[in-house]
What we know:
The protein is mostly helical. Helices cover 44% and strands 10% of the residues.
Amino acid sequence: MKKRKPIRSADETYLHLNKTENFQTFFRGFIEFLKKKLKSIEEDGSEPYYICGETHQKFNRNWKPFRHLWNYTSKKRLDFYAARDLIEEKIGRELLCECQLMHDEEALRRKQLEAFGVDFGEPGKREIDIVSGFEMTKSDIGIF
């Protein structure tokens, strides 16, 4: 029986994936893997996006975050935690689920609200703009 190679340690995984060409190969392969595993949602006039189909809450028993990343990293013989940390570091945001790699949740939610009838207007031309967590009206600024 053929002996399988052991999974790399966290340090080895980090050093291996920290090289740009290795990370790009790993990440492209992972994106293709996710496209096969996640549900594809297609809307009129836009390209499809992929979702896991579960609510991202720890109380949801059906939600298993990063199970596809776990399977992919074990298949590639890499440490899961080091790979996840490096992905988050490279994309510049923290992930709750791997399906967040496949779409921008803020843009998706905005599109859903616009389809519902919410008018966001254009930045700078709105009656109220939210800046750094507080509301600022034009009269507060002194324009009127």
